[in-house]
Design goal:
alpha+beta; Beta-lactamase; 431 residues; seven-stranded antiparallel beta sheet; single chain
């Protein structure tokens, strides 16, 4: 065809098109096929919930999804084995390590009002005459909140028959700290620590001259009207506590681990908390409470932070996965212990958040290849019309972390048989 006839593209146009195609071919595949968000009806979360429940082998499960001012809730299975009753909005659950994001939220508030500083040292907010170890640098509040203080995961296994999440108490952990040796220079590596968050809650209480439980109640629970979130469950709340297939000891006071793992709550209260997290509640959480504070790539190593996927960022109690500037970016926190597995995931791009809690089934095992946390992330993304996150392999890191934990448990109990890491998590602080 003659380009001069006006019936086809000119030579100049052809050259432009060829040049454009060449430039596009140089772009990464992700830039050429960037996913587009298409919000699905929240009722589709029922399929997500059914799959999570089936694949987890749970006795019972609760699922809450919040998007803007929309709310989805459903209970699956049995609240108590043999009850033939599904969990309800008022069923009581153990939040386990989700407790930590209440602690770090309170930290962000106290930083905002000038009560504490992130670079303030633990020593500055410790009991009088307390000994706080150092290794090249002092431990700061930010180190505690980002698991970079160099502390052990636990101070040891709880004494026999100790109720879940009631060990160690205040005196025990501060006595232990006096002789503790840090694993690395604070701020240089990340190693998941439950005792670190209990020490953080102690520091916040000291700085504000207020008992920690009263401080949390005043600054977070009462403003959000979370009336059933507590360290002190009453008989009626204990009667509503979900239970799994195995005896996990009494429903009792858990204030000894108020910074790391002790909170009880309900799905109804978690609706309010998720609304707070996504910014549709009144009040709404400050962005400073859940932004990225550290990049794992800048650390010498990270251990115990990747249950929901390899973190792309570390926040105050939160982990970030899926790329910090990506449309599929997820902010998450895992929890587990006392027969429960719990999880919160936030998808900022769709102003959505998810809470799930399951109780252990009779087999104590998930379906092979199933990961509750990753499946929840991908379900939340699917509700936004987005593809699943790439399943980046972190097996080597997880295996090393499990082996280290198992050796520590055996070393502290030389006369006992080998115990699985999952058993150790059920005994102490979980994820």
């Amino acid at each position: 065809m003659d380009s001069r006839s006006g019936a086809g593209p000119t030579l100049k146009t052809m050259r432009f098109l060829i040049a454009s195609l060449f430039v596009l071919s140089l772009l990464p595949a992700a830039a050429q096929t960037a996913p587009v968000m298409t919000l699905h009806d929240l009722k589709e979360a029922d399929t997500l919930g059914a799959d999570l429940y089936t694949d987890s082998g749970a006795t019972g499960m609760v699922l809450v999804v919040v998007r803007g001012d929309q709310v989805y809730f459903k209970g699956y299975g049995e609240s108590v084995p043999g009850s033939h009753e599904a969990p309800s909005l008022n069923s009581e659950v153990r939040l386990c390590s989700l407790t930590k994001i209440f602690t770090s939220d309170l930290l962000a508030k106290l930083v905002s009002d000038g009560t504490v500083r992130l670079d303030g040292t633990l020593k500055s907010y410790s009991p009088e005459d307390a000994v706080v170890p150092e290794k090249g640098a002092p431990i700061t509040l930010e180190d505690l909140a980002t698991h970079t203080a160099g502390l052990e995961r636990e101070i040891g296994t709880a004494p026999r028959r100790t109720p879940h999440f009631s060990y160690p108490d205040y005196e025990t952990r501060w006595h232990w700290l006096a002789s503790a040796q840090l694993k690395f220079t604070p701020g240089t590596q990340a190693f998941y620590s439950n005792v670190g968050f209990d020490l953080l809650s102690d520091a916040l209480a000291k700085a504000s001259h207020t008992p920690y439980d009263a401080l949390l109640d005043k600054r977070t629970l009462k403003p959000l009207r979370m009336w059933n979130t507590t360290f002190y469950p009453n008989p009626a709340q204990c009667e509503r506590l979900m239970t799994g297939a195995h005896e996990e000891g009494p429903c009792t006071i858990t204030a000894n681990t108020e910074g790391s793992s002790g909170l009880y709550s309900t799905p109804a209260d978690m609706v309010k908390f998720l609304s707070y997290l996504v910014g549709t509640g009144d009040p709404a959480q400050s962005d400073d409470a859940h932004r990225v504070y550290l990049l794992p790539s800048k650390l010498a190593g990270q251990y115990g932070l990747d249950h929901a996927g390899r973190p792309s960022g570390i926040g105050l109690g939160w982990m970030h996965v899926g790329g910090n500037e990506n449309i599929s970016h997820i902010i998450e926190k895992t929890g587990g212990g006392a027969g429960f597995t719990t999880y919160i995931a936030i998808h900022p791009a769709s102003h959505s958040a998810l809470f799930v809690a399951i109780t252990e089934g009779p087999g104590r095992r998930w379906k092979p290849g199933f990961n509750l946390f990753k499946a929840s992330n991908n379900g939340l993304l699917a509700l936004a019309g987005l593809p699943p996150l790439p399943d980046v392999q972190t097996r080597r890191v997880r295996s090393r972390d499990r082996a280290a934990t198992a050796m520590k448990v055996r070393a502290k109990n030389p006369g006992t048989r080998k115990r699985s890491v999952r058993t150790a998590q059920r005994t102490v602080g979980g994820y």
